[in-house]
Amino acid sequence: MRILISNDDGYFAPGIEALANVAREFGEVTVVAPERDRSGASNSLTLDRPLSVRVAASGFMYLNGTPTDCVHLAVTGLLDYKPDLVLSGINDGANMGDDTIYSGTVAAAMEGYQLGVPSIAFSLAKRGQEHLATAASVARDLLRRLTQRPLQGPMLLNVNVPACPLSELRGVQVTRLGRRHLAEPTVPARSPRGDTIYWIGPAGAAKEAGPGTDFHAVDHGWASITPLDIDLTAANSLGQVRSWLDQQ
Ligand code: MN
């Protein structure tokens, strides 16, 4: 099995090294990742300048672009084969609920899925790398299951692992995405030159976090696995918008 790995934290991040080490137990691994932290890059492609690929001492390839650039470039030209699997992560922090809209980690996996490759995004639900080994262990377990019993067709899976010792992990739950409250306010500050500058504020707290959601699973000590799709159509609103348009 040939596995392509990317992330949004950068090629130097401990999480991508941990994921590559696990993936090597299952096949031939190629890493193509951003040269710097591109967390929050979502599905952006770099279209206004060329991209350069370099190889780090670790053997990981890195480029001056986004997570989506990395997977796109790898699958559509850089590699002379189509990978069997795209893995992204292990992200430093959760990607649950609305996070998935903004996440570069999820975007890298989504790009693999868009290009017809089964793809999995992994995130450690608390920033700071503590218990990264727990997330690596969950990745190993899922890869083992996947190699023994492949899923039918390309699949996009979003995995979040609670930051706890492996001995305290209760297992893996299949979940749906929860929802967050509105984002926290933007944070104004003063630059050294006296200008007002702004930091984007933190994500909102979990709002829809009941049983069955990713938030609920992770809060209760379970790794969460959510199958994602890309169609943003609000199917329930089609009728309403049609009749609104039909009115004089
Ligand atoms: Mn990140």
What does this structure look like?
This protein has one domain: 3-Layer(aba) Sandwich (Stationary-phase Survival Protein Sure Homolog, Chain: A), CATH 3.40.1210. Helices cover 28% and strands 25% of the residues. It has helices at residues 14-23, 67-78, 99-102, 104-114, 132-148, 214-219, 238-246; strands at 2-6, 28-34, 53-55, 61-63, 85-92, 119-124, 156-161, 171-174, 179-180, 187-190, 196-199, 206-208, 222-228. Strands 3-4-2-1-5-6-7-13-8 form a 9-stranded mixed beta sheet, sandwiched between helices. A two-stranded antiparallel sheet has the order 9-12. A hairpin with a 5-residue loop joins strand 3 and strand 4. It is globular and about 60 Å long. It starts with a strand and ends with a helix. Manganese (II) ion binds at residues 8-9, 39, 91-92, 105. Manganese (II) ion (MN) is lined by residues 8-9, 39, 91-92, 105.
- Average pLDDT taken over every residue: 97
CATH classification, class level: Alpha Beta
Q: How many domain modules?
A: 1
Q: Which structural class best describes the helix and strand composition?
A: alpha/beta
- Order of neighbouring strands in the sheet with most strands: 3-4-2-1-5-6-7-13-8
- The ordered string of helix (H) and strand (E) elements is EHEEEHEHHEHEEEEEEHEH
In the CATH hierarchy, the third-tier topology is known as Stationary-phase Survival Protein Sure Homolog, Chain: A
CATH hierarchy: architecture: 3-Layer(aba) Sandwich
Strand composition percent:
25-35%
- The rounded Rg comes to 19 Å
Q: Would you count the extended β strands for me?
A: 13
Low-confidence stretches: none
Please count the helical segments: 7
Dominant shape: globular
| Helical residues, percent | 25-40%
